[in-house]
């Protein structure tokens, strides 16, 4: 279904007049999202310009791998699984199968996508999948303190928290609401922007409402509906269609963050040093949660088995067990201790690529090797072949019957 969605989106994009107008203009550089960029790579080829990726889904490593970065299955958790980089034997098997499964799913999608690109942009476009390998630079949404330490080629820079900023004062209505809680403070609940809280199943919504009513804190909840429609809202809860998340996360009276665990939310929570309760929904949420739990600043709840009791307990635990805030603040210090800010890093490398009209000298030839070549398996096969041949030849020549035969001929 997701595969069909990509093809559908590609069709709509390449049909769009505004997209096609771009082809008449001149650019120095194109910056694409590194998760599934293949449709746009057709445009990049037509324009004949260097391109970069911003890998927003930091745990998705497909385009990193195509650029030649090592992403061994033994230490690279599949982006959609609740695994970390430290896996036991069975987890590694699960991880390898999960990663291969996504790669397999990719094949039919890429075939459909390729035809879509040919239809819209002309049949001289090379295989878009392979165009991936020509990426000049990758801005990776990660950093060892919040994602994992990884071997990266010189044409990759990590820019986690590029958008993070110190908290500004809140609008008056929010500030008044929080002040009303006195010293007990408040918690912040948000399922992000790609999951619409207002679309959640009614039993889950009721469960959250009941839970919030039991808490001794005020609750600020990002919920995309008019308060008039929510008649059962307890007095300690305030909802908002769109809330200034970072200003809230940086607020002195915030006690905990209840989140779906989107990667940017996780980065922001570390940047502001706030403990979290995460309820993963889809995509990379499970992987993000696994990392946050390992780092000790998060508790994770499963939406399938969640109960009001469990949620209350988790919220109390991350607030009252000092370990959670301490670990969040420890990660915060590590995240901020960098030579330059992520934004400065990103600007430097973007301008670098423009200055040199691409960064082809930073590319690794590993990007053009297939799996067998990269791991020297073709050589192993070759040597095995040689050994086999030698053995067969030796057997032939040292065979007593043949030696006997040779001797007889000599006489
Ligand atoms: C990579 O892109 C540049 C700029 O469009 C182009 O000149 C070059 O031929 C491309 N290389 C490959 C191997 O496709």
From TrEMBL:
Bilayer topology annotation: Single-pass membrane protein
Pfam families hit by this protein: UDPGT
EC numbers for this chain: 2.4.1.17
Catalytic activity: glucuronate acceptor + UDP-alpha-D-glucuronate = acceptor beta-D-glucuronoside + UDP + H(+)
Organism encoding this protein: Anopheles epiroticus
Protein name: UDP-glucuronosyltransferase
Principal location: membrane
PANTHER family in the record: EG:EG0003.4 PROTEIN-RELATED, UDP-GLUCURONOSYLTRANSFERASE
Enzyme class, UniProt record, top EC level: transferase
């Amino acid at each position: 279904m997701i595969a069909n969605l990509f093809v559908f989106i590609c069709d709509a994009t390449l049909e769009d007049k505004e997209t096609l107008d771009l082809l008449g203009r001149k650019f120095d550089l194109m910056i694409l999202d590194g998760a599934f960029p293949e449709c746009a790579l057709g445009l990049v080829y037509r324009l004949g310009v260097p391109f970069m990726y911003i890998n927003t889904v930091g745990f998705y490593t497909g385009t990193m791998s195509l650029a030649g970065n090592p992403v061994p299955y033994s230490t690279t958790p599949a982006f959609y699984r609740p695994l970390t980089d430290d896996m036991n034997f069975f987890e590694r098997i699960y991880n390898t199968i999960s990663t291969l499964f996504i790669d397999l799913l990719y094949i039919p999608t890429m075939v459909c996508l390729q035809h879509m690109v040919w239809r819209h942009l002309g049949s001289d476009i090379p295989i878009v999948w392979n165009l991936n390998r020509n990426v000049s630079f990758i801005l990776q949404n990660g950093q060892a303190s919040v994602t994992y330490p990884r071997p990266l080629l010189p044409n990759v820079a990590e820019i986690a928290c590029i958008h993070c900023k110190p908290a500004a004062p809140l609008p008056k209505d929010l500030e008044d609401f929080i002040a009303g809680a006195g010293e007990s403070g408040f918690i912040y609940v948000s399922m992000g922007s790609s999951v619409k809280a207002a679309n959640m199943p009614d039993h889950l919504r009721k469960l959250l409402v009941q839970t919030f009513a039991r808490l001794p804190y005020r609750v600020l909840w990002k919920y995309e509906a008019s308060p008039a429609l929510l008649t059962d809202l307890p007095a300690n809860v305030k909802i908002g269609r769109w809330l200034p998340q970072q200003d809230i996360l940086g607020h002195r009276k915030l006690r905990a963050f209840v989140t779906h665990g989107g990667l940017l939310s996780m980065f922001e929570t570390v940047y502001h040093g706030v403990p979290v309760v995460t309820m993963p929904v889809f995509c990379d949420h499970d992987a993000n949660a696994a990392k946050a739990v390992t780092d000790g600043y998060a508790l994770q709840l499963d939406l399938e088995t969640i109960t009001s009791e469990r949620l209350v307990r988790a919220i109390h635990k991350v607030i009252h067990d000092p370990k959670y805030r301490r670990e969040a603040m420890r990660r915060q210090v590590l995240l901020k201790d960098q030579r330059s800010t992520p934004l400065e890093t990103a600007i430097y490398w973007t301008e670098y690529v423009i200055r040199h009209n691409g960064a082809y000298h930073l590319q690794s030839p590993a990007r053009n090797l297939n799996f067998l070549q990269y791991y020297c398996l073709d050589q192993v096969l070759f040597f095995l072949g040689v050994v086999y041949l030698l053995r067969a030849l030796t057997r032939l020549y040292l065979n007593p019957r043949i030696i006997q035969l040779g001797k007889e001929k000599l006489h």
